[in-house]
Amino acid sequence: MASMSTKSKILDAALDLFNAEGVSAQSAVDVANAIGISPGHLYYHFKGKPELVLALSRQYAEEVDLVLEAADDAVRGDGFSLETLWTYVQILLEEAWDARFFYREASAL
Description:
The chain is mainly alpha-helical. The protein is built from six helices and no strands.
């Protein structure tokens, strides 16, 4: 299995920090320090915290879109059940939890 790319590691660390402590409480340097890279290395991949937040929002939107497409296919397919629908609702709730800083700090973003 290939190792995670630096960009993926940065995004994962940013998501963890933003969820735990909030976007306003963290800087791009904090994200770099969390994964043991220099700030310059982070800035090579992202211009700063706003670009990190944008990348995370795009990632979140893509994940939610995939779940919604799969749910739509399941609902329209044979063998549909409320259990199937409930499974997709749970997945969407998990996605929202994974990106909870968006909801908690929506007005500040």
